[in-house]
Every structure is written in C-alpha cells, then in structure tokens.
Amino acid sequence: MPDMSASASLAMTHLVSFAKEVDEDKVTPGVLGFIVFAAMALAVWALMKSMSRHMNRVDFTQVPDPKAEQAEAEAKSAATEAEAEASGQGKKQG
C-alpha cells in the first residue's frame, strides 16, 4: 500500500502556495456570505411559490353591481333625452 503522507504533503504544498497568492488586503464574502445569499434565494423562491399559489386561488369573475347598472341606465336615458332636445331645438332655429 503506497504511503499517503507523501501525496498529502504534496497537496498541502500546493494549497499553501495558492493561499500565498491570495491578496490579504482583499475582502471576500466567504462562507457566511454564501450562506446568507443562499438563504435569501430560498426565501424569495418560497415567497414566489406562495404568491403563485394564492394567485391561482383568486376568482376573477366579477359580479355586476345592480346599483351601478341602474345609475348607468339612468345616465344613458338622460343622455338620449339631452340629444333629443338638442336636435329638436336645432330644427326649430333652422
């Protein structure tokens, strides 16, 4: 069985040399930043799924309001009466 300590020490020398290449003045988010970002992404995903579920439950059929229909009918009748009076007065003047 080959000696694993030689390969482990070789790997450590590569990692140490890589660590020396990293700029010590540079700030990186690290593991904590990734965890916070992942938690926020999961929260947004859960909120969007919940919103989609709630929007699918909404019934978009609108029941007409009887008072609004009555007011609209009265407005139309008043408009037709006004047009009839205006056309009648125009004929009298002409």
UniProtKB/TrEMBL annotation:
What UniProt keywords are attached to this protein's entry? Membrane, Transmembrane, Transmembrane helix
Annotated segments matching region Disordered? 62-94
Say which domain of life the source belongs to. Answer: Bacteria
Per UniProt, the ranges with Basic and acidic residues bias are 66-75
Q: Quick check: keyword Membrane in the entry?
A: yes
The residues that cross the membrane are: 29-48
What's this protein's name?
Answer: Uncharacterized protein
Native species? Streptomyces viridochromogenes (strain DSM 40736 / JCM 4977 / BCRC 1201 / Tue 494)
Q: What is the lineage of its organism?
A: Bacteria, Bacillati, Actinomycetota, Actinomycetes, Kitasatosporales
